[in-house]
Structures are given as structure tokens and as C-alpha cells.
């Protein structure tokens, strides 16, 4: 038997690494261009195959997690993504760069369907652990640009990939030595913690699909657009790029705190009880943000980020609550495949909407999209708590 706290600690570290590794290139590409003799616009497309693999690969990796071994898949994740990051540090041609970034995306696709399922299997308090796991992922997002910039400035862009790659491989070695494979056949561990009437299960599936598409698209769009929105609308407060970055990071801190808070609430109340009031946050805040600037915009942006991050925690908990151990990785695989595909489409959508009418048109459009989150929460049936959950 594995120690639940040890397993969850490794899985949380994996969430940090997963998002950190996927965003190193986005920060390093600024200094890679001159070194490789290529323009920013020429280098950036080499990351596209990796991002496609990040979402599409989850279908296969989730299936392997259920049918083979989640522990073995997580070991492959740590070692594979670590070696892939190191390999980027040794590339000499654009083709080699594209192949190395694709490898990062392939190994990164393991984490969400497999790691999230492990969290559910070992969590004593599902909501709390889901919230904490989300915080670790957000720390990976927030720290990637900062750490990559520091390492790149003092050691060069190649070490910005090599250093975290070496650390990740070492974490994988520690994982291999301290976490063992468990045969889950016939085990009652981590059964579904809540259930609904069989005839209402279609409502759960429909609600999940609707909210994942709406929230994943909006979440990624906000992440992409927020720095540019602040640069345009906070001009009366500051024109310093560094201070704008600090303000954006501070806004995201509220999102991370919300994930933990929502997670704790999900341990105490039925999912619909938490999801319904939360679903009313995004649409009005996005609509208001379209016409605000300076301090009022910062306040409303905090509301947007809190609503989006809270919804992500609800989505993950929904799969964890209503699926059994046997199918859990595959259920998460579908959830993340749909979510990452929708998120990928949001970048082009942001660019097109901004071209049509600036941030006013863009924010109004996403406010309308988030009305679907309300519909999804209303569709959810009332759950029947199991004796274990009670």
C-alpha cells in the first residue's frame, strides 16, 4: 500500500511540472529567435504540434492509465517530460526543435487523465485535494515565465529547458523508489462518492460537456487576453510592463485561492449546491469588464478569474464524484480532450473578435458564452450521497 499523502504530493508536483513545461517555450522564444537567427513569428508555430498532442494524447494515456497502470504512466510522465525538456536544450535545427516540443506535449498529455484520477483514488477529502492540486498547476503557470526569464538571462535559453528537465527526472527517480504499483482489480477504493438515478445520468453527461466547452474556451481566452487588456486599459495607473505583470499575477492569486475554497465547499455540500451560484459569476463580470478601466477593471477581473478557476474545480470534481475507479482515467481523458480542444480554438477566436470590435466585442461574446454555464448547472440532477461520502 502506498502512503496517500506521498502519492498526492508527487501528483501535485506533476501538475506544477505539466503546466510549467508547456509554457517554457512561450517565454524563451523571445531570446531564442536571435540565437537561432529566426523571427518570433517564424519560431512560434513550432510549438503548435506539442499543444495539439497535449490535448489529443489524453485519450490514449487515460485508457492506458485504466487498463495498465497509473503508477507506471506517471513514472513515464516524469522521466519522459524531463528528458524532452533536456533535449530542447541541445537542438540545432528548427526541425529538431519541433520534434522536441512535440515530445514535451506527448508526455504532458499523460498528466491530467492519469494524475487527476490518482488524486481521486487517494484523496480523503476529494474537494480539498482537487482545490490544492489546482493551486499547484496555477503555480506552474505563474512561475514558468519568471523562472525561464531569470535562467535565460544569466545562463542562456538552453539551460532554461535543461535545468527544469534535470530536476523533473530526479523527481521521477524519487517517485519510482517510493511509490509502488497497485493492482486495483476487485478493490473498492475510491468508488463513486455520489450517485444519481440511472435515468438522470444523461443530464450529468450533458451538463459536463456544456460547461467544459464554455469554461475551457473562456478560461483560455481570458488567460491569453488579460495582459493585453491590462496594457490598454490600465494606462492611467501604470505603463510599466513589470508592474502590469505583477498586477496580472496578483489577480491570478485570487483564482488559486478560489480553487481551494470551492474544493472545501464541495466536501461539505452537494455539487449542484456549489455549482449553481458559482455559474452566475462569469457572465455579468465579463460584460462589465468590457466598459471598465483602471482600478474598477482590476476588481472585476478578479471576479472573472475567481469564477473561471472555481468552475474548473467543479468540473474536475464532477468526474471524480460520479465515476467509478475502473473508468475514472478514461472519463478524465474525455473531459480534458474536449476541454483542451475548445481551449485551443479560443486563441483564434480571441484574435478574430478583437479584430471585429476590440475588447468590447470580445468580452461581450464570452459573457454570452458563459450563460451556458448557468444552463449546465440547472441541468444537473440532485445527487444521492453514498454512505461512504456521508
TrEMBL record:
Cellular localization per UniProt: Cell membrane
Signal peptide per UniProt: none
InterPro entries, per the entry: MFS, MFS_dom, MFS_trans_sf, MFS_Transporters
Identification of the protein by name: MFS transporter
Keywords (A to Z) from UniProt: Cell membrane, Membrane, Transmembrane, Transmembrane helix, Transport
Domain Major facilitator superfamily (MFS) profile: 7-385
Coiled coil: none
Example GO molecular function: transmembrane transporter activity
A GO CC term assigned to this protein in UniProt: plasma membrane
Membrane-spanning ranges: 20-40, 46-65, 72-91, 97-123, 135-155, 161-180, 201-222, 242-262, 269-289, 295-314, 334-354, 360-380
Membrane topology category: Multi-pass membrane protein
Source organism of the structure: Bradyrhizobium cajani
Pfam families in alphabetical order: MFS_1
